[in-house]
Amino acid sequence: MVATTAPLVSFSEAIADGSVSESEASTLEAGLHAMPTPKPGKPVRGSTTGRPLMAALDLFGRRWSLRILWELRGGPLGFRPLQKQCDDMSSSVMRQRLTELLAALVVHQLPDSRYELTPLGRDACLALGPLVQWSERWAAMLDSQPAHRNSERPAGGTSHPDTVGDGTPERGSAG
After folding, report:
1. Which of 63, 79, 90, 102 has the fewest CB atoms within 10 Å, i.e. is most exposed?
2. 38, 55 in Cβ contact below 8 A?
3. The whole model's pTM is what?
């Protein structure tokens, strides 16, 4: 069964409940018309074929999209808590990404205005599991190499805070 998306809360409702200020609302409203949401079967950035993989890479390759997905893997979050989990990203960018992820049926909005992953969104997080494991192996490999001048990785090979020792995602981590 395909999950349906709940309508977005209107800007006036968001202002009334304190979710956003009036200035944030006007910034958000202006940013809602930037780029179309990538969809399989339609040309996307980097591909005219519309192959599903290319559409997914376009969607998830957009700034902050994967981070939003990652932060929602632990359960529903409201706009401000999600923004905080995402290192206080700008409201306009977050609203644009949420709009795209809603349109792509990866995220949906609950009646109480919180956002959560749809079954497709949860599947996407599961699909990232092997990439998380690969990234841990990659980090360990880089740590075993002599230090390079441009290396940003700290000595000692500590794990990323979003993973546990075996490289699997840690539930509820803030990233």
Report:
1. 63
2. yes
3. 0.63
Structure tokens at 14: 């968001």
Q: Which amino acid belongs to residue 118?
A: T
Q: What is the pLDDT of residue 47?
A: 81
Written as one letter, the residue type at 4 is: T
Q: Rounded to whole angstroms, what are the CA distances from 91 to 29, 40, 46, 82, 139? A: 11, 27, 27, 10, 32
What does residue 162 show for φ and ψ, rounded to 5 degrees?
Answer: -90, 5
> What b/e string do you get for 132-155 counting C-beta neighbours within 10 Å, with b at 16 or more?
beeebeebeeeeeeeeeeeeeeee
Q: Sign of torsion, CA 149 154 159 162?
A: negative
pLDDT in tens, 16-56: 666 555 555 554 554 444 678 888 888 888 888 888 888 88
Angle made by CA atoms 120, 86, 152, in degrees to the nearest 5: 110
What one-character-per-residue DSSP string does the chain give?
-PPPPPPPPPHHHHHHTTSS-HHHHHHHHHHTTSSPPP-TTS-BTTBSS--HHHHHHHHHHSTTHHHHHHHHTTS-B-HHHHHHHTTT--HHHHHHHHHHHHHTTSEEE-TTS-EEE-HHHHHHHHHHHHHHHHHHHHHHHHHHSPP-TT--SPTT-PPPTTB-TTSPBPTT---
Q: What's the rounded Cα separation, in Å, for the pair 173 and 166?
A: 15
